[in-house]
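For the sake of transparency, this paper describes our internal protein records without simplification. Such a record has a labelled line for the sequence and another for the backbone structure tokens. Nothing more is needed to write down the fold, since each code stands for a local backbone conformation. For reference, a complete record is included directly beneath this paragraph.
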Amino acid sequence: MGTKDVDLQLESVVSDRSSQFAEAWHVRMGNHPSVIHFDRPYDTLPISVTGQRCALDCAHCGGHYLEHMRPIWDVKADGHPSLLISGGCDPRGRVPVAQHLGRISELRGGRRLNWHVGFIESQEVAQIAPLVDVVSLDIVGDRATAREVYGLDASLDDYMQTLDLLRTRVRVVPHITIGLRGGRLSGEYAALEALRVRGIEALIFIVLIPTAGTRYAGCAPPTFHDVADVLLMARVALPSVRLYLGCIRPHGGYRQIVDDLAVRAGINGIVNPTRAAEQTAVAWGLEPIWGSECCALH
């Protein structure tokens, strides 16, 4: 996608929603300081408690993202002030983090820990709580999406119950993947409404990447209009919530447009922002604050 195409598509999305962007920006500036967090999370080491194993073989991942994590049995965390504790799921959508508490305790050593746990029982929450700085919890907005993507018979209520359980003991930052169901919106708005009534403090968005070797490899990512609509609704519906655009989203011209739209929609932070997004943020009067760890740790 050339520079001219990027500019034209960006202009099309913004002009079609000029009043919504104006409202979102007004909400942002009325509820948040004139700063934007830009993170390049090289100081957070991603660790998998299962190596490359995952029982679900999800349509959007297929184990691909586990390949970029360090197996917990082969970790030397020297020089990393924070860790992402993650891994593959069992057939019920649970990451077996409690089985590795001894090793995780050894690795903690003053480091901050961001956890991916999936579905979890109350006993496990109590076990991990002393080692948790934050839990990053993926929220799926409808049962059809959970079935198609994860092979799980899980409703939005199931995800909300897990969120509520975790929040009794630890800090949680929900994540929503825009276009998770093969690039189509399916449950994102319902998820936003469910989170709105719970008074969350932060929310991270990621965007589906059609990944080679997965069942969604041939899909298109969500349209720019769909991404903009979700971000705009989130900003207005969650005026005081810190909104972040996380590290997973397509690259190239697609990322240039999404990042720029995110700034204009009043996002509070972007991981690995494009240069164009940095320039837009400054032009719109925002002061960049740079970080080097997971945005969930803010």
Remarks:
- Residues 3-297 form a domain with the TIM Barrel fold (CATH 3.20.20.70).
- The longest strand covers residues 172-178.
- DSSP finds ten helices and eleven strands in the chain.
- The chain has a mean pLDDT of 96.
